[in-house]
Amino acid sequence: MNSGKIHNKISLYNTLTRKKETFSPISKKEVLFYSCGPTVYNYPHIGNYRAYIFADTLKRVLLYEGYKVKHIMNLTDVDDKTIRDSQKNNQTLKDFTEFYTKEFLKDIKYLNIIEPKKFTKATDYVDEMVDMTKKLLKKGLAYKSDDGSVYFNIKKFENYGKLSGLILENQKENAQGRMGRIKKDEYGKDNAQDFALWKAWDEADGDVFWETELGKGRPGWHIECSAMSMATLGKQIDIHTGGVDNIFPHHENEIAQSEAATGKQFVKYWMHNEWVLVDQKKMSKSDKNFYTLRDLLDKGIDPVAYRFWLLMANYRTRVNFVLEALEGAETALKRLYNLYLELGADTGRVNLEYQQKFKDFINDDLDTPRALALLWDVIKDENISKADKKATVLDFDKVLGLGFENIKVEKMPEELKKLSREREAARQNRDFKTSDELRKKINTLGYEVKDTEEGQRIYKI
Ligand SMILES: [Zn+2]
Q1: Total-model pTM
Q2: Are 42 and 77 in contact (CB under 8 A)?
Q3: Is CATH 1.10.730.10 correct for 287-406?
Q4: Could you tell me the distance, in angstroms and rounded to a whole number, from the CA of residue 36 to the centre of ligand 1?
Q5: Ligand 1 centroid vs 250 CA: distance in angstroms?
Q6: Bridge partner residues of 278 (DSSP)
Q7: What's the pLDDT band for 167 if we cut at 50, 70, 90?
Q8: According to CATH, what is the number of the domain 11-273?
Q9: Same-fold call for 11-273 versus 287-406
């Protein structure tokens, strides 16, 4: 960008305008990118991870096209859920949330997600949240309730509902022209009300509170992201991502409080990924129909296979999770790895024709299903050299993040070497019965034998 480089056109679907738009960042220097991160009160389920894999893929596309990207992700370490569950576990909020933060960071690595430039913890930005609340009070857009909590008056923000398409006209308001109010962090569209910016302390909060100019209390969940985004990226940013369930109320409220405070457009491109379903229902903690990454690891499934499976669908379509489908994806991924290993040690040049097609796909609102199909085409193409295929696969993988560059040929265990030699000899003697028995023995060690023109090859299953 600052080098005067011309980028290929990238189109992205913007939830705000409900159409695909050509990406054009606010600043020439770098793309300002914020992702709503996890609430660190439990192990996220794999449906939650779709949001982080989507954000990572988007970031990789921008990097691939030569943009500099400043990516921030928050960690919600104080809200209704973290307080409730830390108390259940008899732990301090800090100890409790630190544990799940560490687990989350491990999962991110398993999924080949590039770490954001910074993870912002909500508890590190309480001063900024208080300042923003004070500003909104001063402007008359927020008000204090009897218990000392501060609420945002949604009727005072003309564009309330612009992201989610919510129309307030028919909703009841009271004598002061207010909507009634809700102190809870999560609520539905049919329950749109004034939401809490600051929650005055009550007994249920236990020892979780800050003594501030707003009184003793804690921030509401929605203002956390606005304050952290502004503190790290500035008043206006390019991209803000999250799952579709963040659109209302979380992102709608973020827009209201941020734009009311600054008088400027908060985010240029709002982007959201769809749900992961189980039996056609949303995977969720409350329905107990979820898998965690640990469940997959316990079943011996490589978490990257989950990433691979998700990339087979566009991020804006709902996917129905079935364990057998994931196992099928893992088999396909291993097959790709094996074919990649067969390409040998030399890396040649990226095939430019394939690269152009790849760019056309990923720059079209992240069309990863077609990009993956193209990856298979490259690997199967007889007309390009192995070395060039290898370079092209590695080039695509900058976006796909399937970890090809880290695949190594494993050292064969001694017993396997012995069995392999015996089988080779049996085949040379055309003793297929022994050769078959030896194949089974090799299988029991967790390896698979394939007979090729250049002799037998052994793969880890
Ligand atoms: Zn958020």
Answers
A1: 0.88
A2: no
A3: yes
A4: 4
A5: 7
A6: 281
A7: confident
A8: 3.40.50.620
A9: no
